[in-house]
């Protein structure tokens, strides 16, 4: 498969994705925002604990 065929396949696949995708409604958007915020808080908390343990251990 050459570069032109690969590019054409990418464009075709991208158009298909855009056709089936839709804009989330307010409830869906709020739910996604909450889940993302919870994930950020969890990852941040884990990072904070690791840094604190590093200071306690002396690394």
UniProtKB/TrEMBL annotation:
<dbReference type="Pfam" id="PF00584">
    <property type="entry name" value="SecE"/>
</dbReference>
<dbReference type="InterPro" id="IPR023391">
    <property type="entry name" value="Prot_translocase_SecE_dom_sf"/>
</dbReference>
<dbReference type="InterPro" id="IPR001901">
    <property type="entry name" value="Translocase_SecE/Sec61-g"/>
</dbReference>
<keyword id="KW-0653">Protein transport</keyword>
<comment type="subunit">
    <text>Component of the Sec protein translocase complex. Heterotrimer consisting of SecY (alpha), SecG (beta) and SecE (gamma) subunits. The heterotrimers can form oligomers, although 1 heterotrimer is thought to be able to translocate proteins. Interacts with the ribosome. May interact with SecDF, and other proteins may be involved.</text>
</comment>
<dbReference type="GO" id="GO:0008320">
    <property type="term" value="F:protein transmembrane transporter activity"/>
</dbReference>
<keyword id="KW-0472">Membrane</keyword>
<dbReference type="GO" id="GO:0006605">
    <property type="term" value="P:protein targeting"/>
</dbReference>
<feature type="transmembrane region" description="Helical">
    <location>
        <begin position="35"/>
        <end position="57"/>
    </location>
</feature>
<keyword id="KW-0812">Transmembrane</keyword>
<comment type="similarity">
    <text>Belongs to the SecE/SEC61-gamma family.</text>
</comment>
<dbReference type="GO" id="GO:0005886">
    <property type="term" value="C:plasma membrane"/>
</dbReference>
<keyword id="KW-1133">Transmembrane helix</keyword>
<dbReference type="GO" id="GO:0065002">
    <property type="term" value="P:intracellular protein transmembrane transport"/>
</dbReference>
<keyword id="KW-1003">Cell membrane</keyword>
<comment type="function">
    <text>Essential subunit of the Sec protein translocation channel SecYEG. Clamps together the 2 halves of SecY. May contact the channel plug during translocation.</text>
</comment>
<keyword id="KW-0811">Translocation</keyword>
<keyword id="KW-0813">Transport</keyword>
<protein>
    <recommendedName>
        <fullName>Protein translocase subunit SecE</fullName>
    </recommendedName>
</protein>
<dbReference type="InterPro" id="IPR008158">
    <property type="entry name" value="Translocase_Sec61-g"/>
</dbReference>
<dbReference type="GO" id="GO:0009306">
    <property type="term" value="P:protein secretion"/>
</dbReference>
<dbReference type="GO" id="GO:0012505">
    <property type="term" value="C:endomembrane system"/>
</dbReference>
